[in-house]
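Bit of a strange request maybe. I'm writing a small parser for structure token strings and I need a real example to test against, not something I typed by hand. Could someone generate the tokens for this chain?
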Amino acid sequence: KEKTFEIEIKGMKEFQKAKQEYMESQIGNIKEEFESRYRRKEQEKRITHSTVVNQSRLLKMLSRNKAMLKVLNQVQLSLIKKIKSDERFYKDLIKKLILQGMITLMEHRVNIKCLKRDVSLVASVADDACHEFQKLVKDQLGICLLYTSDAADDLLCVDLGGRRIIKKKK
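Reply from user aminoacidic:
Good idea to test on real output. This should exercise your parser:
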């Protein structure tokens, strides 16, 4: 009788231990599943939020683009009217654009591309733009005019940090 009672108690302890391990593993599985679902929901929430924000940004960019195109068209129309009414304005505009390009590039040689109908106009203002560029560079950088040798007395040279613009004197 005692032996059966001991075996029964031992069996009950083993059963309780197995039951406890099973319960703990199932609780762990349930917690992992819950955490996984929670992370998935949070990620979906962040994705949805990001999508809404990006769509809002896209709409804002599209409306800005439309506004900029409208302004561009208005400026183009007014510029065309001004150019047709005042040829001197167009000549001055071309000269300033060439000068702006020279300042931006800061190169010793600049190639200018233009419309076929503007070749003579560009050729007529290119020298003036070059002289203004040389004057501007000299004023801003404190560069002085240099002669490279006695043989080059008929050449005007401007030193641009190792680069030289050589232009024949008029």
